[in-house]
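ok posting inputs for the NAP job
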Amino acid sequence: MKAMGFDEPGGPEVFRPETLPVPQPGPGEVLIKIAYAGVNRPDVIQRKGHYPPPPGASPIPGLEIAGTVVAAGPDLSGERIGQEVCALVTGGGYAEYCVAKIDHCLTVPEGLDLAEAAALPETLFTVWHNVFERGWARDGETLLVHGGTSGIGTMAIKLAGLFGLTTIVTCGSDEKCAAALRIGADHAINYKTSDFVEEVKRITEGSGLELVLDMVSGDYVPRNLACLAEDGRHVTIAVLGGMTAELNMAQIMARRLTLTGSTLRARPDEFKALLCDEIAQTVWPAVEEGKLRPEMDRAFPLEQAGDAHAHMEAGGHIGKIVLKVAHD
Ligand SMILES: NC(=O)c1ccc[n+]([C@@H]2O[C@H](COP(=O)([O-])OP(=O)(O)OC[C@H]3O[C@@H](n4cnc5c(N)ncnc54)[C@H](OP(=O)(O)O)[C@@H]3O)[C@@H](O)[C@H]2O)c1
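and the output
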């Protein structure tokens, strides 16, 4: 099969086509003939050499795929063969075929095209777990999300809207703010032209908000904490702005703040299966009813994985980038 990989970390130009054996599904796994694969910022970080695949994962990037089940592991009945699914995978998505745990697959309903299906698992699993499970979001609360037009940010806006949260996002331009509002954010702050802490104070009339989903870290953390109301929760999912932060622990104590965070890829299969099952029950009905769709930026052919990464790194995208896998 064709796949896009690299020998040494580097810029988007390190991608090169590879010919690899089609992987074989083991126990609990299915083989998926891929139609589209999602591109995520963690793939870019992996390509740069800062996010190695966990033990046992494919060195080929790609954390989410959509396509058709074409084979099943020895312990499975084979009843899923022929079905269209999307799946969360630990790597290997930038290829014509990939194996996935059957318990990490979601059935693609009618009306959801495969490009959209491939754009769902990574952000859906990440946002659901971090906002609702770790962050204990409840309807009526207000959520602050940085990177409002990112893959993660656009999913956070949409899930928050579905589950009754008010969202405030920050973005790096007026155009991105306008896009975030169009996608469903209640408020969008251009962090380059205004101080988001002051803006949050103004929007919440001084009361602060309940939850921050943070992908920046560094010097954003004390500023995020300043946006929180008493008993507020701060969830870290990335460190794009720096790994260390200086915190006033007296403030955390006095205002009873909670700091948490997580990374999805290295979590055990059993955890991802439980998360997938919860999403199938709580969120997937909204996908089936057409109420939840990913925000799509654009598709690149698989062979242009490097261009897709360059496009993501240029930072102008709104929502999700996917790779189209053409089969002969
Ligand atoms: N913990 C997890 O399990 C998990 C899972 C998936 C993704 N993530 C992380 O979530 C983040 C978003 O992922 P994504 O796929 O949605 O990425 P993406 O679409 O490329 O978005 C990244 C966003 O971050 C903002 N940003 C702020 N500071 C930045 C900086 N220093 N460098 C680059 N971008 C910066 C940019 O928005 P502005 O232009 O508006 O600033 C951009 O929209 C990534 O850091 C990724 O690693 C974590």
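notes: The longest helix spans residues 121-134. The chain has two domains: 2-120+265-324, 124-261.
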